[in-house]
Structure formats: structure tokens, C-alpha cells
Specification:
Layout: H1 5-8, E1 22-23, E2 36-37, E3 42-45, E4 48-52, E5 56-57, E6 71-77, H2 85-88, H3 114-117, E7 147-150, E8 153-157, H4 160-163, H5 168-171, E9 183-188, H6 194-202, E10 223-229, E11 249-257, E12 265-266, H7 275-287, E13 291-298, H8 308-325, E14 329-334, H9 354-370, E15 375-378, H10 407-412, E16 419-420, E17 430-431, E18 437-438, H11 443-455, E19 457-458, E20 465-466, E21 475-479, H12 491-503, E22 521-525, H13 527-532, H14 536-546
Parallel strand pairs: 1-6, 10-11, 10-22, 11-13, 13-14, 14-15, 15-16, 21-22
Antiparallel strand pairs: 2-5, 3-4, 4-6, 7-8, 8-9, 11-12, 17-18, 19-20
Helix pairs in contact: 8-9, 11-12
């Protein structure tokens, strides 16, 4: 559970604002600039108490407690000794030296999951009574510390961006699949049967998220996403309606630049397929609960948006493609030289490089246009994401300016991103947050790369930490067989990696920061190569995923 001990004890009064809310800070240590704090850790500074949203080191809570920042303000310290003092001190791993592997791992209690939220009911120690706070309404602009009531209880906003999201299925306090990422429980409002109503409304399992959301509308929580390619690269072609039912999301590959105008994208169906049959297959797959997503770019489709005009061309041409075929969303698979960072573009939270800024704007335009049901996924290479821990294009001298260039895009769209499926293949060795290099093809590579996304990591050459993604937003990207890409990982090694990540079992040289029990699943390049190999990938991994709790 992510809720603080103070919230569970109902120490906040609805009639008071957060600034005037006083809590006991007995047992909460003073913030130490040299210490590393995991998500959920509590500290005090300048007479106020704070809680870490994710891993942090060197960032003063007083200066980094705004929207999307490392800390959230809990309240003013009142200096009164409390019986809670023994239970609010952060775990030892939140204050150990940064050279320790455990220092960068968030507390497992801070991991948001629909599994944990499904059993959350107001604590028996919560203060009962009528709540004066306003009723929660999805899409309302909320600020950190603001109180709302929902489903018979009162909640405090901790992360403004997610509190304010229109995705009610995800962030409705007490009921959404990931509400603990945005809110913390304050108390019961004293409404008859409120505890049971919250438990009931929040008990929707992760496998039955409302179909009104942009999540995969299927009975499965653990998913397999695969790329169906519109060309024959030796794997053969496959009619869309013959794609295995083991796949939950099918990425149509690829929409590519037309060459007619900067930013303009086109999609041309290969002559091997019939247009009417292809469109009919899309509708049939969608009726069966699958998501059909158009993927943009690929290895040969360099896409750059250097100007506002290119951005507009991109948006307009993508709308035309999406509307014609009825795609459920888009996948950003920009490779090659599509993205880079200009020298001095060092803050991933506020990028200045035009090709990055215009891509962010274009994706925001499209997701706003189509609404919450529209899916957004990304499939970058490790070079553009995890390499940012060692080298960052905007800060390094005489290195590749593309290093980590996806980080600003992921960060800006994190509230709209359904999942990130980094390509853990065709990759050089990448340094993990254990400061060791890991090579593709074995379990440790996948464990290290995924743990970085779920723990967060410091961006090279800066004092900024790229924040952790939600577990349901992360897929492990894999080649379907040895022909599909470098770094093929055997079925046994993939399952070993997932046992370590999800169950904290069988880990070897790399120890993840927590048991990531809600890791979403797998992605593969490609469905065509999987079929070529008699569907070994999807069949064996589907069986494994389905037996997970």
C-alpha cells in the first residue's frame, strides 16, 4: 500500500488545507543531501514532512515537491510525540549510500498495483464523520494536497498530473486500477457501508479493467504485443485474421514518411493482401477484444519533425490513416536518426530540441483529438532509453547525441502512455543501475533493463532522475526467434528473467529493487517470425503468463 501512516490514522482534517495541516514528525529523519531515498520514504525539512514519489538523491524536498517532482508535502510538523513514530521511519535501504544496490530501489510498499488496490478499505483507525471536501470528478485540475471524496471516503492528491487525469478507470481515488499512484486515503466519510463499497468498487481485478479505458479490453491482464509486418523479409506473410489468439495487441508495421512533405506519413498495404479483407480482419480482431495499433517508423522509416509545419503534416496524415482503417492507437517506433538532442538540451523535463519538442506536441495533438480510448505505445531501442543513464545526448561531449533521446518524449507523455516496449535486442551492452554492463541474450539483461524503468534512474550529466513508470506500462521486448534479431533469448531464460522480476525468485547477478508483481507482459518482433517458428514464442509465453497470479 502506498498510503502514508498518517493518512491511514486519519490525522488530516478535511476542513484544513494541507499547508495548515499539522502532523507529528517524531521518528521522521531530517532530509540528508547525501542519502538516497526510495519511493515511499518520509523525511522532514524546514519544519515540514515529505514523502518520496520515487527514488531521489540530492534533491531538497522543499525545492522539489511540485507537480511531477520527487517529493510530495505531507504537512507541517507539530513536534508532538506520536505512537506512530516507530512505524514511519523509512527503511534502511532508503538511506544507505548510493553505491549500494539497494539504495536505488523503491520500497515494495510504494509499488502501485490494482492487486493491492483491490483490497484497500479505510483503516479501522481512520477518523469517521462527514467529509466537507468536494466530490471527485475525472478530468478536474487538482493540486497536490487537495482533498476530494469518492466512494464513501476522503483522499488527498499526491501527484497532480495523475490526480487530474480524465482516465477515471485508472486514477479514480479508491476505485481506479492505479489510484494509489495519484492519491492517498485520508479517512472514511462515515457513510453507511462505505468500507464495503470501496472494497467492492476497487475490487475490479486488473484483468477486467473497464473497456472504456485505453487498456486492452480482454480478460487478460498479462499481455503479449506483437508486430505484424506488411512485407516479406524471409519470414513470409500472414493474413491478419490468421494471427494467433495468443496476441492481445497487434502492431501493424509500418507507417512511413511519404517523402512528399516534411512530416507526412503514409501507409501502403502490400500487394500480397486484399484491402477489403484487411479492413474486415481489423474489425474482427477488435470484436474479439484485440487492439490493432498502427506503428510508425521502423528501421527504414526515419521520421523527423523539425518545424511546426512538419508537426502539422504528421498529425493530419496520421489522422487520415487512423480514420481510414479504424486503428485503436499508434505506436512510436522511431529509430535511426529520427530523434537526437542538441548540445545543452540537458533537462528531459523541458526539452528544447525541435525534433523532440514537435514530436511531443504531435502526439499530444493526436491523443487529445481521439480521447482516452485511443492507445499510445512506444518501442524505442535501449540506446534511446536506458543508455541515458551512462550517456545523455544533450550533456555529453563527443558522444552520440541520440543517446537517451526518447526520455523527454516518454516523460512528457507518461500520463497517456499505455505501455513502453523497449527493444531488448539488437543492442550493445548497457550499464544498469548496479553500474555494471549487461549484455543481451540472457536473463540478467532483461532484469536490469526492466528494473531501470520501474525504479527510475539518474540521467547522465545531470542531477535529474528519470522517474519510474507504472508496472502496467512496461513490456519486455524480445525477438521471436534467432532470425528476428540479435539477442534472441530462449524461452527458459525469458521465464527465468520474469520469475526474478515478478516473483523475486531465481535472480542471479542482478537483484531488482522489488518484486514487480504487476509487470504487464511481453512484446515481440515479430508475429511473422513467430509463425515461421510454429508460434513457439506466443504459445509458450502465453502459457507462462496465464499461470501467473
Amino acid at each position: 500500500m502506498k498510503q502514508s501512516m498518517f493518512a491511514a490514522a486519519g490525522l488530516c482534517l478535511a476542513a484544513l488545507s494541507l499547508e495548515s495541516h499539522a502532523i507529528s514528525c517524531t521518528g521522521i529523519p531530517q532530509w540528508n543531501s547525501a542519502a538516497a531515498y526510495g519511493g515511499g520514504s518520509q523525511v522532514q525539512e524546514l519544519g515540514k514532512a515529505y514523502k518520496a514519489n520515487w527514488w531521489s538523491q540530492g534533491h531538497s524536498p522543499a525545492n522539489y515537491s511540485g507537480q511531477w517532482q520527487e517529493w510530495v508535502l505531507l504537512g507541517n510538523c507539530d513536534g508532538v510525540t506520536s505512537s506512530l513514530s516507530s512505524s514511519v521511519a523509512p527503511s534502511s535501504r532508503s538511506s544507505v549510500a548510493p553505491s549500494s544496490r539497494s539504495s536505488i530501489a523503491p520500497s515494495s510498499s510504494s509499488v502501485p498495483s490494482s492487486k493491492s488496490s483491490s483490497s484497500i478499505a479505510p483503516s479501522s483507525s481512520s477518523v469517521s464523520g462527514s467529509c466537507a471536501s468536494p466530490q471527485y470528478a475525472a478530468g478536474t485540475a487538482y493540486t497536490p494536497g487537495q482533498l476530494v471524496k469518492n466512494a464513501g471516503s476522503e483522499y488527498r492528491c499526491t501527484v497532480a498530473g495523475w490526480c487530474s487525469s480524465a482516465a477515471e478507470w485508472a486514477y479514480a481515488p479508491g476505485a481506479g486500477a492505479h489510484w494509489q499512484m495519484a492519491w492517498e486515503l485520508v479517512r472514511s466519510c462515515g457513510v453507511a457501508s462505505s468500507a464495503s463499497s470501496i472494497a467492492s468498487s476497487a475490487s475490479t481485478s486488473r484483468s477486467s479493467v473497464s473497456s472504456s479505458s485505453s487498456s486492452v479490453s480482454t480478460a487478460r491482464y498479462r499481455i503479449i504485443s506483437g508486430y505484424w509486418h506488411n512485407f516479406n523479409n524471409g519470414s513470409g506473410v500472414i493474413p491478419l485474421d490468421q494471427v494467433s489468439n495468443a496476441y492481445d495487441a497487434i502492431n501493424i508495421s509500418f507507417a512511413e514518411p511519404t517523402g512528399r512533405a516534411a512530416g507526412e506519413i503514409g501507409f501502403v498495404l502490400d500487394p500480397a493482401f486484399d484491402m477489403a479483407a484487411f479492413k474486415a480482419a481489423i474489425k474482427a480482431k477488435q470484436a474479439a477484444g484485440k487492439k490493432i495499433i498502427i506503428s510508425i517508423g521502423g528501421a527504414n522509416g526515419q521520421v523527423q519533425l523539425p518545424t511546426a509545419a512538419a508537426r502539422a503534416n504528421f498529425v493530419n496524415s496520421m489522422k487520415a490513416i487512423i480514420d481510414e482503417y479504424g486503428f485503436d492507437g499508434l505506436d512510436v517506433d522511431f529509430e535511426g536518426h529520427s530523434l537526437f538532442l542538441n548540445s545543452g538540451d540537458s533537462d528531459f523535463r523541458n526539452p528544447t530540441t525541435p525534433v523532440v519538442v514537435n514530436l511531443i506536441g504531435a502526439l499530444q495533438d493526436l491523443t487529445n483529438h481521439y480521447g482516452d480510448k485511443f492507445m499510445l505505445t512506444m518501442a524505442p531501442e535501449t540506446f534511446f532509453v536506458q543508455l541515458g543513464y551512462s550517456f545523455y545526448g544533450g550533456t555529453c561531449i563527443s558522444c552520440d547525441t541520440r543517446a537517451g533521446a526518447y526520455l523527454p518524449v516518454i516523460y512528457a507523455l507518461r500520463d497517456k502512455l499505455d505501455w513502453l516496449q523497449v527493444q531488448n535486442y539488437n543492442s550493445g551492452s548497457i550499464m544498469g543501475t548496479d553500474n555494471k554492463y549487461h549484455s543481451m541474450g540472457g536473463a540478467d539483461f532483461h532484469i536490469a533493463m526492466i528494473d531501470m524503468l520501474l525504479t527510475g534512474f539518474k540521467v547522465a550529466g545531470t542531477n535529474l532522475t528519470f522517474p519510474a513508470l507504472r508496472q502496467d506500462q512496461v513490456l519486455i521486448g524480445l525477438p521471436a526467434n534467432v532470425n528476428a534479431g540479435g539477442g534472441f533469448t530462449s524461452v527458459a531464460e525469458v521465464h527465468s528473467a520474469m520469475n526474478c522480476l515478478i516473483k523475486a525468485q531465481g535472480c542471479s547477478s542482478y537483484q531488482p529493487g522489488a518484486a514487480w508483481t504487476n509487470l504487464r507482459g511481453l512484446m515481440t518482433w515479430s508475429i511473422n517470425w513467430d509463425k515461421y517458428n510454429n508460434y513457439e514464442f506466443s504459445n509458450q509465453h502465453r502459457q507462462y503468463l496465464d499461470q501467473l497470479p
